[in-house]
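This section describes the prediction task in plain terms. A model, or a person checking by hand, is given the sequence of a single protein chain and must write out its three-dimensional structure as a string of tokens. No templates, partner chains or ligands are provided. The sample shown here is typical of the held-out split.
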Amino acid sequence: MKRWRGFTLIEVLVALGVVALTLTAGLQATGALTRNAERQTDQWLAQMCAENVLTALRLQRQLPGTGDSEVVCEQVGRALRVRVSVSPTPNPNFRRVDATVLQGGGDDAVRLLTLSTIQGRY
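The expected answer:
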């Protein structure tokens, strides 16, 4: 009598289940890495926008007026909004400047970054 060698149906199904689980875990890890890279890019672009706005205020060589304003900053084809808030300090020769970078528009805007500095009278 000849005996056939090979895998049973149960063994094949278990192997397919293990492969499916491994592929699912790999896809989730790849998705997480992609989201992390996009978030890091957004943070980097937001940092550049905020620093550019704060540098522009310093280059004016005058004490900025108090209040809020908004500037559109375009980096790498992405339009980011920079909300600039200038507030007084206890010393009248200095002002606190906050630059908050937002992505998106309206009420669903996402805050990416906030940079704060103190600007003095020249």
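For orientation: Helices lie at 9-59.
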